[in-house]
Amino acid sequence: MFENPQAFATDHPTLIAWLATVVAAIAASLIAALAFRLAWTVASRLTRHQIFAANVLRSTRSAVRTVVILLVLQMVWEAAPDDLPRLSTVERFTTLALTVSLVWLGMRCVAGLSEAIIAAHPMSASDNLAARRIHTQTRVMARILMGAILFVGAALALMSFPAVRNIGTSLLASAGVAGLVIGLAARPTLSNLIAGVQIALTQPIRLDDVVVVEGEWGRIEDIGSSYVVVRIWDDRRLIVPLQYFLERPFQNWTVSSAQITGTVFIWADYRLPIGPIGAELERLCKEAPEWDGRVCVLQVTEANERAMQLRALVSSVDSSRNWDLRCRVRAGLIAFIQDRHYECLPHTRVEVEGNRTQSTAESAASVS
Fold first, then answer.
1. Which of 152, 142, 153 is nearest to 111 (CA)?
2. pLDDT tens, position by position, 169-206
3. Phi and psi (nearest 5°) for 251?
4. How far apart are CA 60 and CA 38, in angstroms?
5. Range of 322's domain?
């Protein structure tokens, strides 16, 4: 291509130096990519039976590959001649990309660990109190850690540029003062963040908890950094700020156990015999797959001038089964009363005195 390569190299030393550096960078990147792929294959086979290591490896593969390649490029730039023009600019952008990649790697490590912890504690069991506690703490703390990593990474990225290095340094050095200033402007956001830490530690709510919030019955579907998603029984979603669960009362039916006792109320006439109703309730509970065998009780809880109130107490392993059991028992007892004691359904009694009725009729006839 060139008639006199030696003369061309003498006349264009900078171009030749850059070409050599670029070729070295490409070759080093290819070697690093191949070495990474080989090492990753070996590591994947060694950790395929280890849930934590396997999850972290899967989550961080792309980030680790990027970091390795950028580290190799940084080594190539450092080995290049110091007097190479624009080399400092290339090194600065490589450092910035490496910083961003390290932040990405840190966040993926946290995500991989949290996914491994969650996978090791499934919530498929009927009594999943411990699993729900671990899921809640893991998700909330993982989001807080990823936010902290992102904050530190942004400050370090700013420090890689001389023009804005003071901003990055100040961002790290005055984090406390900045927090006070930002707190005045973004108090709801910070209060929800602090509430998230409190909820993760004290756990008034957990994932999949059964709660009654604002008169709505549902389950905790997600606990975010600023709000909680409650999946209501009819598949609606109730969005509630985190601070709500620390400042206002609410019902949590699974705070210590998923087991629950439900009630069924039935009004009946005083002529209804209690014994057969109690026996029918026991039969319904024994035949119901939702009953856990703990509580099956019939009580007369109220009586007025018209009827008496029967209360059936039935228990289940969780609230969903208990709702189905209550519906089954209610329908069964009503059907039993209709079939065996129809006359004992609630009645409204009206007593009419004969003389008063007759005199009223005579008065009406005289007026007409």
1. 142
2. 555 555 555 555 545 545 566 666 677 777 777 788 88
3. -100, 135
4. 16
5. 260-344
